[in-house]
Structure formats: structure tokens, C-alpha cells
């Protein structure tokens, strides 16, 4: 079975900016994968090259085994990309635009799938509206529908929820999850890290055009994210032996960074033995944002 996406040693330069510096990435069929990174890390550049909208300076990219250059047509047919920027034709209605896009892929009689897309994306009552008259969030839904018109096995979404309200975001994710359950591979870039954490089982983090982390979401959280514990202590004193765990103090509240929940038991024992009682205790769950900040700042 071919990987859904295979990227080998991809480099891309814009003038003096080295946007991608030897990116290697392999995404298996059926994965729900997140591509994360700060602004300018190279995410959109990589996606544009995958979609055939830009050319790599060197390296190879394949979609379901089809080289994006040598086998452009098949690669293009296998992938649906929801671009970050809102680009649309001002003179088409939503339905016309989707029919036109179907024609581009030589698909006739696509109305049943177009109706399903419109329904699933909450666009049915906008089907005959001109795209230019829609709100920003609605235009974004149209872009999603447009990318899916040929039922691509691999779906890439470049910040699909930027500027999208909560309800819309949830219905969009409901639909994308369904497609993933039905076997579509999903690759997503987002700046909402909780979104990536909830949806994606594997994550690549890009920084200045390089992959700096590639692992399952669970492993990244275990490896990089700390459990933050805050405790109001009485008397307000932290025994020396616990100092290495300290991550700050705010009056009587001491903050500790732990690697595992099990360490908390030890901390409480040390405090009890030192005659210090815990007047208040708060434990915060590690999240992908911690991992992201750690990797991006290092
Ligand atoms: N067409 C272009 N011409 C010149 N420079 C470009 C072009 N496209 C991208 N760049 C530069 O390449 C680098 C990577 O940009 P890219 O848009 O891929 O980052 P990104 O990770 O998608 O960022 P964001 O999260 O802001 O969308 C940036 O420094 C950007 O300014």
C-alpha cells in the first residue's frame, strides 16, 4: 500500500528566503495528521507544492504513489486541497462553481455528491447565491466543498477554521471526521492547537522550513509537556528537595512542573513530612501548546 503522502528532501527558496530545507515526511493512508508550526514555518509552501500550485527546487513528492510533477494528473486527482486564502470566482453561484470544478475533473452527473456536500456543510440554502455575496465563513465552507468535489482520497486543509465561528467549526469537523472514518486521509494545518490535539493522531512540527518533531500526539505530550501543579502552602515554604521541580511562585502559591501524575504522590509525601499542609491544589493537563512553545522557542 502506498503512503497517502510521501515527501523526500524537499527544498524551496524564495529569493533570499529558504522556505523549506530538506523536508522528509511520510503520511499513511487513513491518518488524521496535523502539520503545525509558527507563521512562516513553511506549511503553506509545502501544501502548495503538494497541490501542484508551486514547484519544489529539489526533492520528490508523491500522493498515493503519484509523483506531483511526473504524474501530475493522477496526483491532482488523488488530493483535495482547501487553501488558506479565500479565492473564488465572483461570477458563479455556489452550485455553478461546484459543477464547474467537477467538469475540471471530467466528472459528469455529480449532482448527488454536490447536494451531499452542500447539505453536510450547511450550504443548501446558499446553493444559488453568488459566492461573492457570502460571508467569510460561508466562503470558507464553499472552498471546502470545492476541494472535495472529486471525492479525493487525500484531503489537505490549510487553516480551514481561521475566522470561522464555533458552530461552523464543529459542523466542519464533524464532516471531516466522517470522511476520515470512511477512509479518507486528512492532513490539517491549524493555529488552534486544541483542535489538532483532539482530532489528530500524529503531528509534524515545522520550524524555519525543517521538521523539528514528528510523532504521535500522545508521545509528544508525554515527552515535552509538563503537568503544572499549583499549591497554596501553609506555611508558605517549599522544601529544598522540591526546588528542582519549581516553575514559579505567586505569593503563597507555588508552581511545580511534573513529568508524570505519579510524581504528585511523592510531592505530597515530602510536604507532609515537612509539616507543610496544602491549602489549595490545582493540576493542569499538559497540552500540545506546551509542546509547540517548547519546540518553537528552542
Ligand atoms: N510567493 C512567495 N514569495 C516570497 N516569499 C514567500 C512566498 N511564499 C512564501 N514565502 C515565504 O516563505 C516562508 C514560508 O511561508 P509559508 O507561507 O509557507 O509559511 P506558513 O508556515 O504557511 O505560515 P502561516 O502560518 O503564516 O500561514 C515565509 O518566510 C514566507 O514569507
From TrEMBL:
Domain ABC transporter: 5-233
Keywords from the UniProt entry: ATP-binding, Cell membrane, Membrane, Nodulation, Nucleotide-binding, Transport
A Pfam family: ABC_tran
Protein family membership: Belongs to the ABC transporter superfamily.
CDD domains tied to this protein: ABC_DR_subfamily_A
PANTHER family: ABC TRANSPORTER ATP-BINDING PROTEIN, ABC TRANSPORTER ATP-BINDING PROTEIN NATA
InterPro entries, per the entry: AAA+_ATPase, ABC_transporter-like_ATP-bd, ABC_transporter-like_CS, ABC_transporter_ATP-binding, P-loop_NTPase
SUPFAM superfamilies reported in the protein's UniProt record: P-loop containing nucleoside triphosphate hydrolases
GO MF term (any one): ATP hydrolysis activity
Official protein name in the record: ABC transporter ATP-binding subunit
Amino acid at each position: 500500500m502506498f503512503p497517502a503522502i510521501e515527501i523526500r528532501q524537499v527544498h524551496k527558496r524564495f529569493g533570499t528566503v529558504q522556505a523549506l530545507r530538506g523536508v522528509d515526511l511520510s503520511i499513511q493512508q487513513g491518518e488524521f495528521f496535523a502539520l503545525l508550526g509558527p507563521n512562516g514555518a513553511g506549511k503553506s509552501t509545502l501544501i502548495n507544492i503538494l497541490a501542484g500550485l508551486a514547484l519544489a527546487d529539489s526533492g520528490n513528492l508523491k500522493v498515493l504513489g503519484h509523483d506531483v510533477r511526473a504524474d501530475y494528473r493522477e496526483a491532482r486527482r488523488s488530493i483535495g486541497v482547501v487553501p488558506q486564502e479565500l479565492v473564488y470566482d465572483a461570477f458563479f453561484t455556489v452550485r455553478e462553481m461546484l459543477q464547474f470544478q467537477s467538469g475540471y475533473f471530467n466528472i459528469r452527473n455529480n449532482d448527488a455528491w454536490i447536494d451531499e456536500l452542500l447539505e453536510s456543510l450547511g450550504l443548501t440554502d446558499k446553493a444559488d447565491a453568488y459566492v461573492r455575496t457570502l460571508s467569510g465563513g460561508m466562503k470558507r465552507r464553499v472552498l471546502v466543498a470545492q476541494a472535495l468535489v472529486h471525492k479525493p482520497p487525500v484531503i489537505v486543509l490549510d487553516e480551514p477554521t481561521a475566522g470561522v465561528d464555533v458552530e461552523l467549526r464543529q459542523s466542519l469537523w464533524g464532516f471531516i471526521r466522517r470522511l476520515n472514518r470512511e477512509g479518507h486521509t486528512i492532513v490539517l494545518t491549524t493555529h488552534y492547537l486544541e483542535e489538532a490535539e483532539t482530532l489528530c493522531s500524529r503531528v509534524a512540527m515545522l520550524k524555519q522550513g525543517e521538521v523539528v518533531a514528528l510523532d504521535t500526539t500522545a508521545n509528544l505530550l508525554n515527552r515535552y509537556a509538563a503537568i503544572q501543579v499549583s499549591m497554596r502552602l501553609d506555611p508558605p515554604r517549599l522544601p529544598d528537595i522540591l526546588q528542582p521541580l519549581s516553575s514559579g511562585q505567586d505569593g503563597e502559591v507555588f508552581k511545580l512542573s511534573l513529568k508524570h501524575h505519579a510524581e504528585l504522590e511523592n510531592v505530597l509525601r515530602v510536604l507532609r513530612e515537612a509539616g507543610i499542609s496544602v491549602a489549595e491544589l490545582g493540576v493542569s493537563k499538559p497540552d500540545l501548546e506546551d509542546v509547540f512553545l517548547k519546540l518553537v522557542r528552542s
